[in-house]
Amino acid sequence: MLSLGIVGLPNVGKSTLFNALTRSKQANVQNYPFCTIEPNVGVVEVPDERLAKLAAVSKSKKIIPTAIEFVDIAGLVKGAAEGEGLGNKFLSHIREVDAIVQVVRAFEDPNITHVHNKVDPKEDADVINLELVLADWEAVAKRLESAKGKAKGVVPKDLALELALLERLSVHLESGKPARLLEYSDEEQPILKELHLLTMKPMMYVVNVNDQGLVINDYSDSLKELLINHYSLITVSARLEAELAELSAEDAKAYMVEVGLTESGLDKIIKAGYALLHLITYFTSGEPETRAWTVTRGTRGPDAAGVIHTDFVKGFIKADVVNWQDFVTFGGWSGIKGTGKLRLEGKEYVVQDGDVCYFHVSV
């Protein structure tokens, strides 16, 4: 399951956003720093209008969407890497997620204290990013010291590779740059994975704006600077999302039209998360159930089948594959035969977003 960690300074709207996304009141939203100590975790169904259309054609008894996990991590402050504000504990929670959702504040509200007494999204982001970099630098420095201690006499090839990587990373991180901006060889990837670096994780910015048409003009220059390193950036009003979460699905749609929104904050964040992690969705559909499955872009047939059951990887024989729109248009599996739209694919087939698959396996 995809896991997104929500981070940011205290009082930028992280917990309000978390509660809205998960339609819960798990997270404390009091107006003071560190009102969240232990991370709150919520699992949300991924909205996908294709599921209902597929299920209607297949007369499915159940619809099972894929899911995403949101983790609300306590607000970080300057000095977090040295333990300021319980920083070390909070940073360890970030290591467990697949991608980082960094919330920055772009709204004025005299009733909500800003820890720096100044609203500046770029400055907020700089504080968080530097703390993540410093935490990684400390981890790399410890590993480098250990590796140098092992480098006695003739240095084995694998240790020499590790030393070179660690030294390069140390210089890069010491300059204040995240590890994701460096290029790495295939040989270096296993070492990199062992380090569990925070700044290797994909990251998006969620700009928490006001409710008035999501106006962000006052901070446009600051926000442009956030995109220098090619991060994903979306705008959301946490307060508005919280109001939508209190309404029925029908009333929420009507309210969105009224305020000029074409999609919810949840939809925006999920789309951005899937894009960040290069994820796609394929489907299985029949009378028992219609179900969505998430795989990484570029996944071949056997590994896609393995998401359903690990035995299907070795047992994969072939797959019947059709685009979901054709599946709906021609009336499902029975109607698609003879149209030329149904394809028989083998082990080298790369699954595409929107494929409806029937796997033939031997187990």
UniProtKB/TrEMBL annotation:
It holds the Pfam family MMR_HSR1. GO terms for cellular component: cytoplasm. This is Ribosome-binding ATPase YchF. ATP binds at residues 11-16. ATPase that binds to both the 70S ribosome and the 50S ribosomal subunit in a nucleotide-independent manner. GO terms for molecular function: ATP binding; ATP hydrolysis activity; GTP binding; metal ion binding; ribosomal large subunit binding. Residues 278-361 form the TGS domain. Keywords: ATP-binding, Magnesium, Metal-binding, Nucleotide-binding. InterPro entries: ATPase_YchF/OLA1, Beta-grasp_dom_sf, G_OBG, GTP-bd, P-loop_NTPase, TGS, TGS-like, TGS-like_dom_sf. Residues 2-256 form the OBG-type G domain. Belongs to the TRAFAC class OBG-HflX-like GTPase superfamily. OBG GTPase family. YchF/OLA1 subfamily. It comes from the Bacteria. Its cofactor is Mg(2+).
